[in-house]
Amino acid sequence: MDKEKKNNIFKTALLIEGGGMRCAFSAGILNCLLEEGIYINYVIGISAGSSCLVNYLARRPEIMKKCFTDFVTDPNAMSWRSFFKGGGYMQSDYIYGQACQPGGPLHIDFDDFFANPASYRIVAYEEKQGPMFWTEKDSRDPEDLMMKVRASSSLPLFMPPTHYQGKTYYDGGINNGLPIDIAFDDGFDRILVIRTKTRNYVRPPLNPLRQSILRRNFRGNEKIQEALFSRYKNYNQSVEIIKLMEKENKALMVCPEIMEVSNHDRDLDALNKTYAHGLDIGKREVGRIKTWLEEGEKDEK
User: Fold this and answer.
1) pLDDT reported for residue 301
2) For 89, 195, 254, 295, which has the most beta carbons within 10 A of its beta carbon?
3) pLDDT, position 76
């Protein structure tokens, strides 16, 4: 265990978008940051981005990559048979439990994670109170931490909800996949955003079929229905705010030039290409990212 983990970027927030297996791209970008010794002291992770958060703060690039590439070959990770039986496509008990334990395919030394003094926010959606997040002050236990990551990643229809401490949680991106307000509320006015959508992507409203499916799935919970149906507006608004911030040199978005995998993709070749695409953009952009981050550290504000 590295007991002397230190960070070097303190005035910029890092926001890691979710997107399921699309985070293969994010893994490539984040591994470039680690390779360059760019250690940001405040990180927000949402949905699959919360898994990236854990591996970034633990500084485990090999597991970062494996989460969104080789792991799909594990027969215990995803199952359409389970999906059609109502148990969810992604096997959350295994992914966030056994796979993360010593000897498991995604095991990291959690002492390394907890040795990092960074502040973090793991975003989830509680069925009654709505969007919320956990911080570094809420847990020092690996299993508890991974329950929070699981809660943040519990994508409706593809995963069952996470029942934790008497409450029911769903994917943190239910109402907005880019919760920049969290960073603002914590006093940050500079944000580095790692996205899994192309720069000009505009989220469309849910089509009538998906609306019907979600209404049936969340019958009796109008709060979640409303969040899901308005998600596209909130997401697109966040993107526009980030673009305005970029013009003021207060934000920097790193986006894929192309995204050809789905959030539940199991095509290993395609996922490896997506990871390689992230690495390529990371290597091209890391100098600019580093310069921009260092400018923020010199800011007197």
Assistant:
1) 52
2) 195
3) 86
The model's pTM is 0.94
Catalytic residues: 47, 171
- Name the DSSP letter for residue 144: H
pLDDT at position 89 over 80: no
| Nearest in space to 33 (alpha carbons), one of 91, 118, 96 | 118
d(CA 104, CA 94): 10
Tens of pLDDT, residues 6-35? 999 999 999 999 999 999 999 999 999 999
Whether the CB-CB separation of 146 and 99 falls below 8 Å is answered with no
**Tens-digit pLDDT profile for residues 259-292:** 999 998 999 999 999 999 999 999 999 999 999 9
Place of tokens 């849910």: 206
| 8 A C-beta contact, residue 183 and residue 44 | yes
Question: What percentage of the chain has pLDDT greater than the value 70?
Answer: 95
Q: Which of 215, 3, 239 is nearest to 117 (CA)?
A: 3
Do residues 155 and 85 lie in contact, with contact meaning Cβ atoms separated by under 8 Å? no
Q: How far apart are the first and last CA of the chain?
A: 35
- Can you say whether the dihedral through the CA atoms of 1, 119, 150, 240 is positive or negative? negative
Closest CA relative to residue 178, chosen from 271, 259, 262, 243: 243
Residue 226 CA: distances (Å) to CA of 25, 168, 206, 217, 262: 30, 17, 12, 13, 24
Q: Both tokens of residue 13?
A: 């927030």
3-class DSSP state of 92: helix
Within 13 Å of residue 10, how many CA atoms lie on the same side as its CB?
Answer: 9
